[in-house]
Design brief:
3 helices; 120 residues; 6-stranded mixed sheet; 48% strand
Length: 120
């Protein structure tokens, strides 16, 4: 049986993969802190729901990304670690990239407040 945090994370990935911004934004805090994957600067971050919605919409305008969680683990410090496989395709369906990642989510109650990424 999945715990509450794992279910929230998996539901958020389902919303992301179906490009459902309204549902997806409901899984994050108003002041969410998120890495900006459009830049090579690892310190550049997005802040707030509006910035994150815009980021996802821009991404979806040019690519189709499928994130498949392979492992979801709640860590002793309360963060949730997600190992995932990611495939990014252009709008014609051609593969642009694929890789495996570890995502570390911080949560406040039932909402995601921060994401950090480790590239495997």
């Amino acid at each position: 049986m999945r715990n509450r945090k794992e279910q929230i994370i998996r539901d958020a990935y389902d919303a992301f993969n179906s490009r459902d911004a309204d549902t997806l934004i409901g899984y994050v805090t108003e002041d969410v802190n998120w890495p900006d994957g459009t830049t090579s600067d690892p310190d550049k971050r997005l802040h707030g729901r509006d910035a994150l919605r815009e980021y996802w919409q821009k991404q979806w305008d040019v690519t189709v990304t499928r994130d498949t969680p392979t492992e979801v683990t709640e860590l002793p410090d309360g963060r949730v670690m997600v190992r995932l496989d990611q495939v990014v395709r252009d709008l014609k369906g051609e593969e642009v990239s694929k890789g495996s990642f570890e995502y570390f989510f911080e949560m406040r109650g039932d909402l995601i407040s921060r994401l950090d990424i480790t590239y495997l």
